[in-house]
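Narrative progress, year one. The postdoctoral researcher (J.K.) led the effort to move from monomer predictions toward full complexes, under supervision of the PI. The following entry was the first complex the group processed end to end, covering 709 residues in total.
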Amino acid sequence: MASDGKSVGKGVGTSVGDGRLGRLLVPAVPFLWLGALFLAPVAIVLKIALSDATIAQPPYLPVFDWSEGWTAILDALGALDIENFALLTEDPLYWRAALSSLRIAAISTVLLLLLGYPMAYAMAKAPEKLRPVLVMLVILPFWTSFLIRVYAWIGILKPEGLLSALLLHLGLIDEPLAIMNTETAVFVGIVYSYLPFMVLPLYATLEKLDATLLEAAEDLGCPPWKAFWRITVPLSLPGVAAGALLCFIPIVGEYVIPELLGGSDTLMLGKTLSDEFFKNRDWPLASAVAIVLLVIVVGPIMVYRDIETRRMERAR
Amino acid sequence: MTAAAEGRKRDTLAIGAVRRNFAPWADPAAVPLIRFEKVTKRFGEATAVEDLSLDIYEREFFCLLGPSGCGKTTLMRILAGFEEPTSGRVTLAGRDLIGVPPYRRPANMMFQSYALFPHMSVEKNIAFGLEQEKLPKGEIAARVAEMLRLVQLEPFARRRPDQLSGGQRQRVALARALAKRPKVLLLDEPLDALDKKLREETQFELMDLQVKLGMTFLVVTHDQEEAMTMADRIAVMDRGRIVQVATPGEIYEQPATRYVAEFIGDVNILEGRIGQGEGGRWHIAAPEAPRGLLVDGGGDGVAPGRQVAVALRPEKLRLLQDEPAPGTPNVLAGEVWDIGYLGDWTIYLVKLASGRTIRVSRANATRFVERPITWEDKVFVTFAPEAGVILTR
Ligand SMILES: Nc1ncnc2c1ncn2[C@@H]1O[C@H](COP(=O)(O)OP(=O)(O)OP(=O)(O)O)[C@@H](O)[C@H]1O
Ligand SMILES: [Mg+2]
């Protein structure tokens, strides 16, 4: 009897254990992925950010030398400090770059929304057969290199470029456009490059919107233009949030567009980072900038996640 | 008796009084509230509504009944303004509705899918239509409260639609459409999502409300029992056309065509040829009734020699175990093929020599029967001349 009970207990124990292992294994995969490809690099960057710059290979101190044993590692750890972060707060250049990045990202996001919403709305209202074609057209630019597309804008925006020529020809302007290497050019480049990221999530929510809701509103005495504000806009807010964050977050760290289209006075964190890294060879300071950038965008990402979970809960 | 129950009883009495004397369609001087005049609606090649004319009177509870795809929703959407007819005229209270947008029409619709605004609470949903009228805040609040009380949803005022059951949602949709006190309320299969019991309760609630609020209801349904229960008049539709408009009783007892007879309730159809007339009755030679049929009345087009159908309702047939006296007409001989015991009723399926089965229903008025009829018994189905309806179409 007793032995019976024991064997039964054992059997149950192993089967539970197996189940638990299986259940742990599945979520372990994304965690390993996250650990190897996100947390480890961030830890390395953070370590470099806490080091001091030097003229050597690699250009920072201390370097962990695993062959010297534990004491050496501990010494090296002791040599880390937050001097670089302190510098970032002291030098107004970095403050200005951070604020300017946020400002450019915010303005770009608003412009993207103003342009993207009508586009997505028109796509969602288009005849059903036409919609996949329109989605294809929005995605089409991705088939050519991002860099080439930004270069193409130089050809369009420069004073002797296509846009200038066209406007001069039409007699709308008297002298060549001077928007190349200004913030305006940066906005043009950003809005152009990020438009699909705004349009697609907006389109996804607008297309799913139940058309009978608008009929119901109209039936209750609400003219269509008012129904747009009372029904369509509120119900598409999750799409607005998704699109806005999907654009805002990468724009804050944008480097290529301000580098190619912006002027020397266009300050952005991505550009500052690259300058520190390549021009000044100050890896630790560049790393510190990278960490600050990360911290800045983590906020909006959390907000986005929060919106998404709440939306999922509501859908249930 | 509680005060509420007493109040309810008084209401019901009032409804009886209102409904008993209500028949504006029979009054040649009455002016209809809604008129469809030769309305046709085509979607590309397909015709959803064809050359349809229909009058609906004020305070009428009107049901559109028909199989799926016969154009019921389309007709309702034409009245609400979501579809423009391809040709024809629609007037409401004498006003031509063609070209008037939905938001300016004095009709409100309860949608087949309810179409509640998911981002608004129950309260806000109900208030939506009132806000469009720019009523003062206090009045809106009062009306919303009144509507919530009416549909018994006061405890759920702050909930969002996704936090309600199907039946509760249906009530919100009803309250939202009622809140504006429209001249006409359009209900597209309003009780489709409810289970049988709740459905029956709600049918009576709707009838109650309609009388209490003095509104005109146009209800779409494909459930004939529902239509029979609620409606003052029913329009039976078939492929975009109206086949018959009449009170539930007339539709059931005097169907205009074979289609109507078969669509509403159960019916047995016998085919035959009209013989000679006899005091408002016709002798009909039917192969399945060797003794011939003798049936009352019949409308236009009934003349000797004409091929007709005779519709017989199962509950108007009698089942005999002994052969009726020779010479009596209306006798069908057969064998009991199947019996369905429903508690209140028993359904007998009698197979004739021709192979056709006749459906006979019998009320179980007593608990015990001396000689119960069972499977494979030889039986005779008979009926009175006034039980049959002669149909020429
Ligand atoms: N927008 C439309 N485009 C094309 N055809 C349509 C459209 N709306 C309805 N129809 C067609 O018109 C006919 C009538 O449709 P309707 O929706 O009025 O039927 P219904 O009687 O309400 O049916 P159900 O009981 O299934 O709701 C159908 O054959 C349908 O396919
Ligand atoms: Mg329908």
